[in-house]
Amino acid sequence: MTAVLDTTTSHRALPQVNGGVGGLLRGEWVKLRSLRSTWLSLAVGLVLMVLFGWLFTATAESGGPGGDGGGPPGLSFTDPVGLSLAGYRLAQLAIGVLGVLLVTGEYSTGTIRSTFAAVPRRWPVVAAKAGVFAAVVFVGSLLTGVVAFLIGQASLGDLGVGLGADGVVRALLGLALYLTAIGLFGMALGWLLRSTAGAISTLFGLVFLLPVLGQLLPASWGPDVVRLLPGEAGAQLFSLVGTPDALGPWSGAAVLLGYLVVAFTAATVLLRRRDA
Amino acid sequence: MIEVQHLAKRYGEKTAVADLTFTVRPGVVTGFLGPNGAGKSTTMRMIMGLDRPTSGTALVNGKRYAEHRAPLREVGALLEARALHPGRTARAHLASLAATAGLPASRVEEVLDLAGITSVADRRVGGFSLGMGQRLGVATALLGDPATVVLDEPVNGLDPDGVLWIRTLTRRLAAEGRTVFLSSHLMSEMAQTAEHLIVVGRGRLLSDSSTAAFIEHAGGESVRVRSPRATELTGLLAADGVTVTSAQTGLLDVRGLDAATIGDRALAAGIAVHELTVVRPSLEDAFMTLTRDEREYRTDEEIAA
């Protein structure tokens, strides 16, 4: 351990600029991949999505959640694709939480200081983290969506449809985009609130709780509020059977994107001002 | 080179750092000394561009931290023990930063080796002892082979081996021409490591001088003399500019004469001397002298509250 820090040799050999976009993305990829919790959360969420899709489709005929009569709205025999993908509600939970943790984990452990010391402008970190996470979630959700669809349609037997059926590709791509957006929304909340508990509660409140509470609002204006919530608006990305209260796929996507833009903009502005 | 000018940080009513101005020069180890809560860590975070100063500036190698294109190449810092994700391995922690900063992967192995933690590089940091975590923190600081090294309480939690390692390492880094700035609340450790001292209390600069001058300022050397005929010896030594005090029978504390002169005079008079020791005031003494007012002020404030 003598020559390692010799100024005359190593000092000049090292590059004089930061790693650029490639370096940032690689750095964030190493961070993401080196935590067991990343893969655990993703695996749990995605496996549950397949399992529940299978459960809904397999029990459809015997009066399960997908059966005629009972069951939640949007899950019915008339929508075999939606039925097989209905487990997404659990996947979004795991993915959203993971998005939060990837950011708040840096704050709670103090690694955010090393990160910002390496990238003092800070916003490129937000972008690189989001980019890497989005790529991983998108690929994971797309593959899982296909698996859930195939298993679900197989268990529906004659009522099932094929990959080539109308809207199936749109539903699968839309679902992957939706889950990616929810993960990113969790990430933005993490940057904004810097606390795991706060960000997860906010995410749950907006995505899970408010839609349920919204059902209790007066019929005259309640649905107008509910359809603008991130989960409800975003679900139109992959929903093939429109309900009268819901937005269309494009407007749904636009509303969800709006949440992301607002949250990330606010987070980046605050990040510039705040002490790390 | 670190140049801090009129740096201040207030959190609402509370002032953490008040109008600090000092310069940390390359080539020597500069200690940043002060009791806990004196504003050392806040100052270091402002130097690193992590906390925004309320007023004033902190320049590193001539620029504000955020203006450097490759900041890790300019400044490396250990800011707090365990700023590490427990679920990540030491190697992954360093590899992610190296990638972000555009440093070659070989640098990761070099600093692991330098910090003596190559054998545990693939273990999760959560299982690290405080000392191992601290070594990984130092490895992180040196990753970019920086011209300026900032270490906040680097010896905290280190065993004697680790303390010696930090002392040797920081001296070598300074000898290589780097700027080395390390904080501590342990005065004895600083006395052995730092050549220059910047002392703060309650966010204010109390002293900025060489370690030797700082200790000198606290009262300089004295000579302890033990002799069975101490009273006679006192008469021999007494002169202008020499003070002799005796805390106990047979023991003298002499200021204003060096040990050789005292020994020679005792010999000339045929007085046996059983002990002749040069006593340097400790850094603790110097620090207490310097901060007495600060602490009295604090007590008054506490009484008022």
From TrEMBL, chain A:
Cellular component terms per the entry's GO annotation: plasma membrane
Pfam families per UniProt: ABC2_membrane_2
Protein name: ABC transporter permease subunit
Leader sequence segment: none
Native source organism of the sequence: Modestobacter muralis
Record flagged with keyword Mitochondrion: no
Gene Ontology molecular-function annotations: ABC-type transporter activity
Transmembrane segments: 39-57, 86-105, 126-151, 171-193, 200-221, 250-271
Keywords from the UniProt entry: Membrane, Transmembrane, Transmembrane helix
Automatic annotation (TrEMBL), chain B:
InterPro entries named in the record: AAA+_ATPase (IPR003593), ABC_transporter-like_ATP-bd (IPR003439), P-loop_NTPase (IPR027417)
GO molecular function, one term: ATP hydrolysis activity
Domain ABC transporter: 2-227
Presence of the UniProt keyword Repeat in the record: no
Protein name: ATP-binding cassette domain-containing protein
Pfam families found in the cross-reference section: ABC_tran
Keyword Transport included in the entry's annotation: yes
Keywords: ATP-binding, Nucleotide-binding, Transport
Cited Gene3D superfamilies: P-loop containing nucleotide triphosphate hydrolases
Stated family: Belongs to the ABC transporter superfamily.
Domain of life of the native organism: Bacteria
